[in-house]
Amino acid sequence: MDKIIAHILVVDDDDGIRSLVKKYLIENDYLVTTADSAEDAVEKIKIIQFDLIILDIMMPGKSGLEFIKDNKKKIITPIILLTAKGEPSERIEGLEIGADDYLPKPFEPKELILRIENIIKKTKLNDQKRVIQFQNIKIDLNKQMIFKNDNEYKINNTEKKILEKMINNPGKTFSREDIGLLIELDKERSIDVIITRLRKKIEMDPKRPKFLQTIRGTGYVLWIE
Amino acid sequence: MDKIIAHILVVDDDDGIRSLVKKYLIENDYLVTTADSAEDAVEKIKIIQFDLIILDIMMPGKSGLEFIKDNKKKIITPIILLTAKGEPSERIEGLEIGADDYLPKPFEPKELILRIENIIKKTKLNDQKRVIQFQNIKIDLNKQMIFKNDNEYKINNTEKKILEKMINNPGKTFSREDIGLLIELDKERSIDVIITRLRKKIEMDPKRPKFLQTIRGTGYVLWIE
DNA sequence: CGAATTATAAAAAAATTATTAACAAAAAAT
DNA sequence: ATTTTTTGTTAATAATTTTTTTATAATTCG
After folding, report:
1. Distance between CA atoms of residues B102 and A41, nearest Å
2. For residue A179, what are the domain limits?
């Protein structure tokens, strides 16, 4: 399974800290881009969709707090603030304004990594399977595609939601009601049809489903290997 | 930040200028290859992927302008034109045709280096992609041009912003809202129209988009490889 | 077997996206 | 200052995709 490598933007005017943090992060298998000012960061986020921003609060020019204020409408990316020691008011303001966490300098590398992992987990980026393969079938939720032998099929949002849930809970049976809640749909017969269509895409022999099976009277289950 | 060692091709029929430029460049830590004619340059670019081409406009045989015309669909590399003094029409034509900058002869070595650095910064640096090529399509954000087979299209600022983002996040789906934030535009229907227009430029068959695809209910994604 | 449940196909309906053309506003050119 | 070109907006219509319905078949299990 493909691990998603989070892309992190490190914003700090201090060369030493910037490269140190970059080094830590790279050692921990993150993809890192740096910016040496808020202005620089603004340019970079225009172009790259980061998974996390680590932001120094005190910088010449625009401060970290100003950066957040100016961009919070546009940014969905979580932010970890680096604050100077003993500046509780700024920390609080940062969190109020939209930062997701803060870390007072100086900090232990391990602590930084911990907080990053924590946030990444929260944003659900990492703990979910997005690509799985069994036999000759590959389901790629990121691409919203299924590859079966030499065929490829698009999967729509409804199908994606169902597969997402089932892939991350293999062997668990979902009632039609469960599925209906998931995809915001309360017509039970419609779910039959959706399952039928899904089977055409993921089963070698859709009439004799091996993976997406029916549990009569209960619901459906994804059964992989 | 690490300095990138750029590989530069110098194309000039004049031995003196060629070796002089080469000397300057080597002193400034560039890697240099020379060609004494457009024909020679054509052979060299077949073999080596340069980071920059410095091209004399006036040469016996094929001229610099002809070289660009003949190769612009294929070449990703930025070009600096060397023009004879006081030939503004040729300069303008050069820029129109696809050069990235020009420098009138005679020039100060320092000025050449400055322009080189400027271009290198714009292109290679930043780990941002500015020029990409796939199949018969080339997108050049610096020149704001798209080359498709024998056609070429200008891209405006809006289109550029969208492509910039997507090129640097290939495979990532952007909602209309994302795109709207990016280009400061909140009319969702307008985005449809903009996408349609973009597809006319970058798709071989705009009615059946292969690259700029719709993820129904979610948004759009650029799919290249 | 027979009743209940599930499967399937095809058609209809609904929702979303695509396309075109016409227009207005802004920008660029003359 | 006027004209031309470009760009975003809107609206009307078409095309596509997805959901729902309907009708019928197939399956399961007491």
Report:
1. 30
2. 157-222
φ, ψ for residue B70, nearest 5 deg: -70, -25
**Least-confidence region, from A185-189, B127-131, B143-147:** B127-131
Instruction: Report the number of distinct structural domains present in chain B.
Output: 2
A216/B contact by beta carbon, under 8 A: no
Distance, in Å, from the CA atom of B111 to the CA atom of B129, rounded to the nearest integer, reads 26
Look up the CATH number of the domain holding residue A196: 1.10.10.10
Per-residue pLDDT of A156-178, as tens digits, reads 999 999 999 999 888 999 999 99
Residues 165-194 of chain B sitting with CB below 7 angstroms of strand C: 189, 192-193
Q: Give the closest-approach CA distance of B1 to chain A in angstroms.
A: 9
Strand D: which residues 95-114 of A lie within 7 A (CB)? Answer: none
Q: Which of residues 42-81 of A touch B (CB under 8 A)?
A: 44, 46-49, 73-74
B169 — contact with chain A (CB < 8 Å)? yes
**From its phi and psi, is residue B110 left (phi > 0), alpha (psi between -120 and 50) or beta?**
alpha
First to last CA, chain A: 14
Single pTM value for the model: 0.71
For A215, the token pair is 């549990």
Helix (H) or strand (E) segment spanning residue B214: strand B212-215
Residue with smallest Cα–C1' gap to D18: A156
